[in-house]
């Protein structure tokens, strides 16, 4: 027969354990609700971003059947929502082999980023696009499809083609005119082999590349040139500086170097293009002018001029100097100018002082 006291204690313990279990289940239930709420909010945020994104976003099966697409995707291709859902992505490829390449890349790497492809809209218009995509997996980790973003870069590609054409009208121009032209990357490292520069400096192709341009600049002008160049890069502004460049035979010529930045879509500098205009004759004339000015200034500083009131004796004609001493007029003028005296007698003084000689002179 069971002990009633033991049975009561056992029931109390079981009840306490049951209450504890109920409390744990309540906590788990609250956590589940919180998780579901967080997931719901996360899904809402994702859906908001999905629908309001300016990028075309899609979800597909592995076979390429579109399961979901946002409004930007629909607007980009020109289909209705109903037409887009179930549409096979492979039909939008201009080149069918690009679809195969995409699948091989994403299956191998698990993702593709900024993969360039050419796609076709509903009306047949072809687009240059960048494709970024990842593999979608189920709970077991098996691949079940893809999700990604498509960006239309047609206008950008056209702008790049125009820019390349301009850079080519530029290369031809400097080759024909014989000007020293240059093209560098964003940091100022030479990336284009401009033959006119190599012909002038006598540098090899390898010497020109990188920072080779600095080796041809006069050492007295190099620091100033680098300062101007660094400031132009920092401020993304036009580069302009005068400096001397060493010719292939060792002779230095003056040049006005000018460069303009070519920008990327994000506003950063992609490269610099510029020319060096020969200003040697102008600089020589400027130096000659400066030399003449200095010579004239030196000459003027050596000229002594008499100015102001001169205290002079009305009888003996002596002049009082700055220290109060009386000097012969000849001495005073000689000390205060470059004049020299030669002595003689005027006719009036001759008649007064030497009347006999005056009669003889007649």
Q: How is the largest sheet built, in terms of strand order?
A: 2-1-5-4-3
CATH architecture name of the largest domain = 2-Layer Sandwich
CATH class of the largest domain: Alpha Beta
Structural domain count: 4
Structural class: alpha+beta
- The number of strands is 11
CATH fold annotation of the largest domain = Beta-Lactamase
Helix content class: 40-55%
Question: What overall form do the CA principal axes indicate?
Answer: elongated
The sequence of SSEs as H and E is: HEEHHHEEEHEHHHEEEHEEHHH
Radius of gyration: 47 Å
What is the typical, i.e. mean, pLDDT? 79
- The number of helices is 12
Strand count, sense and barrel status of the largest sheet are: 5 strands, antiparallel
* Percent of sequence in beta strands: 15-25%
Structure description:
This protein has 12 helices and 11 strands. The chain has 362 residues and is α+β, with helices and mostly antiparallel strands.
SSE layout and pairings?
Elements: H1 4-52, E1 56-61, E2 66-69, H2 71-77, H3 81-84, H4 96-109, E3 111-120, E4 126-137, E5 143-152, H5 154-177, E6 180-185, H6 195-201, H7 205-208, H8 219-235, E7 239-246, E8 252-263, E9 269-278, H9 280-302, E10 319-320, E11 326-327, H10 329-336, H11 347-353, H12 355-361
Antiparallel strand pairs: 1-2, 1-5, 3-4, 4-5, 6-9, 7-8, 8-9, 10-11
Brief summary of the model shown:
The chain is α+β, with helices and mostly antiparallel strands and 362 residues long. The protein has twelve helices and eleven strands. The chain has four domains: 1-49; 53-152, Beta-Lactamase, CATH 3.30.450; 158-279, Beta-Lactamase (2-Layer Sandwich), CATH 3.30.450.20; 319-361, no CATH class.
């Amino acid at each position: 027969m069971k002990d009633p006291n033991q049975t009561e204690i056992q029931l109390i313990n079981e009840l306490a354990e049951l209450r504890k279990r109920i409390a744990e289940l309540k906590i788990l239930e609250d956590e589940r609700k919180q998780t579901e709420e967080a997931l719901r909010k996360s899904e809402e945020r994702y859906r908001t971003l999905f629908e309001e994104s300016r990028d075309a976003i899609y979800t597909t099966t592995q076979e390429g059947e579109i399961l979901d697409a946002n409004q930007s995707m629909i607007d980009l291709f020109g289909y209705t929502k109903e037409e887009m859902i179930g549409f096979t992505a492979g039909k939008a490829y201009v080149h069918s082999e690009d679809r195969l390449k995409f699948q091989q890349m994403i299956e191998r790497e698990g993702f593709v980023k900024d993969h360039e492809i050419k796609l076709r809209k509903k009306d047949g218009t072809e687009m240059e696009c960048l494709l970024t995509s990842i593999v979608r997996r189920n709970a077991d980790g098996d691949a079940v499809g893809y999700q990604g973003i498509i960006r239309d870069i047609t206008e950008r590609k056209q702008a790049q083609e125009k820019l390349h054409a301009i850079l080519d009208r530029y290369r031809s121009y400097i080759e024909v005119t014989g000007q020293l032209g240059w093209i560098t990357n964003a940091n100022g490292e030479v990336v284009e082999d401009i033959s006119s520069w190599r012909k002038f400096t006598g540098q090899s192709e390898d010497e020109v590349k990188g920072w080779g341009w600095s080796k041809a600049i006069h050492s007295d002008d190099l620091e100033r040139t680098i300062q101007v160049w660094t400031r132009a890069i920092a401020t993304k502004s036009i580069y302009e500086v005068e400096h001397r460049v060493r010719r292939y035979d060792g002779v230095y010529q003056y040049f006005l170097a000018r460069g303009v930045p070519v920008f990327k879509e994000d506003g950063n500098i992609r490269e610099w293009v510029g020319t060096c205009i020969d200003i040697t004759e102008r600089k020589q004339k400027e130096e000659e002018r400066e030399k003449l000015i200095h010579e004239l200034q030196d000459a003027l500083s050596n000229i002594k001029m008499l100015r102001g009131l001169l205290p002079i004796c009305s009888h003996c004609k002596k002049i009082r100097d700055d220290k109060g001493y009386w000097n012969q007029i000849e001495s005073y003028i000689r000390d205060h100018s470059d004049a020299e005296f030669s002595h003689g007698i005027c006719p009036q003084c001759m008649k007064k002082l030497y009347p006999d000689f005056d009669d003889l002179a007649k």
